[in-house]
Structures are given as C-alpha cells and as structure tokens.
Design brief:
There is one protein chain. With 209 residues, this protein is of the alpha+beta class. The chain contains four helices and eight strands; from the N terminus they run H-H-H-E-E-E-E-E-E-E-H-E. The strands form two sheets. The protein has a six-stranded mixed β-barrel with strand order 1-7-4-6-5-8. Strands 2-3 form a two-stranded antiparallel sheet. Strand 5 and strand 6 form a beta hairpin. Helix 1 packs antiparallel against helix 2. The radius of gyration is 23 Å and the shape is elongated. The protein starts with a helix and ends with a strand.
Amino acid sequence: MTRREQIVYKTMSENISRAGEFGLCPGPFVAMRAEYRRVVRREQTHFLLEFMLLALLIFALIAPWRASADTPHTVLRVEWGEDVDSHDTIVEEDPDESERILEAVKAKSNVLEDCFVTGYCADCVEKYAHMNQDEFGRVLTASGQWVYPGSCVATDPDVIPTGSTVIIGDKTYIALDVGVIGKHVDILMTHEEAAVAGARRETVWWCEE
C-alpha cells in the first residue's frame, strides 16, 4: 500500500473506534472501510498482473538475442497459485463480526416497508449539480461530508433523518444527502452503476444515533 492509502485506511479504522466511544452505530464506517479495502486490493492485483505481463514481454523480446546452440533452453515458469493478499498489510476482517454488527443494527432499527429504492451519481442528474467530486473520487453531499460512492444514500429527512444508519438488503449506508420525498431512498453510485440501477421496492431498516 502507498503511504496515502495507509493513512486513509488508518483514519477509517479510527472512525470505527470513535463511533463506539461516542455510542454511534459503527455499521456505516465498517462498510466504507470494507469498500476501500476492496478497491485497494483490486488495484494491487491489477498492478501485479501488469508487472508479470511486462516481464513476460521483456523476456520474449530479449530471449532470441541470448539464445545459442550450446546454451540450455531457459524455462520460464509462472506460478498462478500465489496468494496476492499474503503481502497485504490490511488486516482481514472477520465475516462473522460484520454479520453480527449488521444484525445488531437491524434489531434496534426502524423498519420501512415497501420503500422506493433508486440510484444516482454526482454528475448525471441535474438537481445534484451542487455536488462536487475530489481527486480521490469522493463526493460532497448536502450534509457537507465527503463520501465514496456506495456508502451514502439520499433520503427525505422527515422520513429518515440525515445522519441515520440505513440498511438495504445486506448493505449498510449512511444518510448524508437529501433531494427525495417520502418513502424513497436514493443510493449514491458511480455513473456506470447509476445508469443501470433502475428502481425497485424493498424493506429498509434505519436507526438514528
């Protein structure tokens, strides 16, 4: 991991600890940290594959020039079974712990049946033109907080107050944006995800802490 990625991940972990100290739901912070870890891991995997392909290309270019009649053939063996995560400095999170946190939040949450669920992005809907994106891909919400797509939802504050923890299916979000009316939850997504998200009716859990 780069120094910047280590600082971001450490800050997310500290937010989870602070949430517990102040009696807040740690669910949304855990979800944000897990999503960040997934993105970092994917980038590391892509970098490793690109490096291996580059090494193979270099070998293929220089091998003919080094070959000779009395020199044994060189065999290049690529091992695909190596665990890429073995060099990852991020500590693996126990899936059972995440499940217990999710169930604990649901147990003390309000239930909103037959809720209208949609998706939006920061730059594809005109009424969200006030939102900005920074160089890290974060989006500025109406609450004034910067968040990553996939971690935040827009709600009607009269139905689900801003700052609430919101659970849809097995995913946890935090309500930091507005712009919808009634029993409607709009999930902040990337442009590509929002283009195919569609609309559906689902049961939504939320708690205000």
